[in-house]
Amino acid sequence: MIGSLVHLARNARAGFVLAREGALALIDPSALPPSARLGLRLARIIERRGAGDGAARLSAALTRLGPSYVKFGQFLATRPDIVGAAAALDLELLQDRMAPFPREQAVRTVESALGRPLDDIFLEFSEPIAAASIAQVHKARIRTADGDLTVAVKVVRPGVREGFARDLQAMRAAARLFERWVPDARRLKPVEIVDALARSVSVEMDLRLEAAAVSELAQNTCDDSDFRVPKPEWDLTARDVLTITWIDGIRLNDIAAIEAAGLDRVALGRTVIQSFLRHAIRDGFFHADMHPGNLFVDDLGRLVAVDFGIMGRLGMKERRFLAEILLGFIQRDYLRVARVHFEAGYVPPHHSVEDFAQAIRAIGEPIHDRRADEISMAKLLTLLFEITSLFDMATRIELVMLQKTMVVVEGVARNLDPRLDMWTTSEPVVREWMERHLGPIGRVEEAGKGLWTLATLATDLPDMALRTKRLLGRFEDLAAEGVALDRDSVSAIGRAESRGNRWSTAALWIIALSLMIIAFGGF
Question: Which parts form a coiled-coil structure per UniProt (predicted)?
């Protein structure tokens, strides 16, 4: 009971801040049921004058609510399938810039995590130079066998885990009420969204996992001459501390500095696109937060990425799917693009392949009437996912993250080279992967994997047969005896359901009364 009241108070505060900052103006009333429209009108009574518009309102509200809500907004920016393309673009503008915490607190965290005094670890340790919702970065120097080395030290905010845990509990409670009282919203799966956010944040708050991501990406790209990543210092890395080599370079959005350094903007734009596609299609592991603040160019003209808290993965099926649809659009083979969707199981088989190909043609043909530099691959994928939703294609989280990252990557590349030809730039990477994995060598490898799978299955057959026999015996016993619930169990279930309904109703009334009191109390 006390926990429910605490969650209620936190959600009431969040609702008030969102209403006060004007964020509720972004909601389309026509998409809501009548009761929810009335609630929206009442909540907007307390809207602050001059709250701005678009992303400014939501950004101000989420920043005021704290790190958990900032991270929630950034998470929703990667899910245009949930919030819509326009809202996702607005949320992309939400900056993860928070006030830094004092250096003394960072020092205590570092010493606790690494088990040594700071002066025994670092020759120098600066004031914070950048701060986000989960951690902040300091510049430092360490002594190595090869001499002094400048490093970046990322330190988790004190108390951030506890704060996120509290806010996520309140978000889950609100999501459950939303699902119960707004049935039409269940298709958005609000509880699953909060659970996905919790998983994402738990990974981001363990900096050992970020170090592992850096290491894996470095291993995948060790032979790429135009791309590199920093090197983690494993001896100086723990759950709350990440130490990596310092990157000296020019941010990719600093066009004037790039030109002043005599770097080739056209070649750099091509590197951005081809590097991303190599990571996604060749390796199945890509940086999923490639905005300009996380991308640099060094003095040798190489692309350098930082901040590996959000990474994406694609299995072999998804990589083949991506490569084939891109090549299909390049070659205008829309029937092949349609068949790839059906072969991957993304579109239910009761639909017509030919009808789906016709819908895809409606996307592909207009782009071939335009100049190459006018064609947006990211927009094409967005339209493709919109069309596939008409054919009951289930949402694939990994493909949505890929599509959203491609939007950002394409924007970065076109800022460097406004006349970038996306198709000519992408084709070598896509074709090389197709020839390697779908050609003779790839088919021999697939056949070898199939034979190994069959051999493994054959050795497991006796044990599988024994387990199946036991399971069938249990089903026979269950069919003969049935499942019985005694009277006390049925009564207890009824009482529990009744209590849940009463508390949910009371919670909604308290929220409504709180907003009305706040509204008419002079806010």
Answer: none
Mean pLDDT, consecutive 10-residue stretches, the chain (523 aa), reads 65 75 68 68 72 65 76 70 61 69 96 95 95 91 91 93 84 78 64 77 89 95 94 95 94 92 93 93 90 88 91 87 80 87 84 89 75 64 70 70 80 87 82 76 58 66 75 69 57 56 51 48 45
Look up tokens 């001499």; give the residue. Answer: 147
Q: Where are the domains of the chain?
A: 2-97+170-202, 98-169+204-246, 249-438
- Fold observed for domain 98-169+204-246: Phosphorylase Kinase; domain 1 (3.30.200)
User: Cβ(424)–Cβ(270) under 8 Å?
Assistant: no
* CA-based radius of gyration for the chain: 27
List of residues 6+ apart from 501 with CB closer than 8 A: none
pTM for this prediction? 0.71
- Between CA 138 and CA 152 the distance in angstroms is 6
What length does the chain have?
Answer: 523
DSSP state of 341: H
Spatial strand order of the sheet with 124-131 comes to: 124-131, 135-144, 147-156, 241-245
What does 444-508 look like in DSSP terms, one character per residue? HHHHHHHHHHHHHHHHHHHHHHHHHHHHHHHHHHHHHH-----HHHHHHHHHHHHHHHHHHHHHH
Residues 6+ apart with CB under 8 A from 60: 21, 23, 51, 52
Residues marked as catalytic: 289
- CA 441 to chain CA centroid, nearest Å: 34
CA pair distance 460, 454, nearest whole angstrom:
10
